[in-house]
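User: I'm new to structure prediction. If I give you an amino acid sequence, what do you actually give back? Let's try with this one:
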Amino acid sequence: MEIKSLITPIGAFNSFYVNSLLAKLVYINKRSSSCPPDLTLQKMIDKFFSNSELKNFPKYYLQGTPFQLSVWKALTKIPKGHTESYSSLAYKIGLPGAARAVGTACKLNPIPLLIPCHRVIKQDGSIGEFALGKANKKYLLKMESK
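Assistant: Good question. You get back a string of structure tokens that encode the predicted 3D arrangement of the chain. For your 146 residues, that looks like this:
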């Protein structure tokens, strides 16, 4: 496994690769990392935070249950600047009663930012929880709405 680092406006991340495929993006809630920089992914993340459209995503290596994989795939279809409710996402993957399970799959998303779980909100329009913290979710949603 190869580990590299990224610096973003919300803090540093470590990127984990398996056989040159991005497997995990871990938020370390600091301003820097001791790992070598991930220059290729850093360029993509810089585009993401400049609110540019990302076109060339890195190849992923995702491990999860079939349910988690279906949720993560559905997350990638939520357009930038839009949100989707947990229950709406559950309905879209064919399991209308699974809103809480969708929330859990979002929490376990191994590649936040690139698999945009921050775009999922509660049915009542409130932002809900976020593995990287509510303040970061608010920041990301506000950034993408511009």
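You can read the tokens as a compact description of the fold. Here is one thing that stands out. The mean pLDDT is 92.
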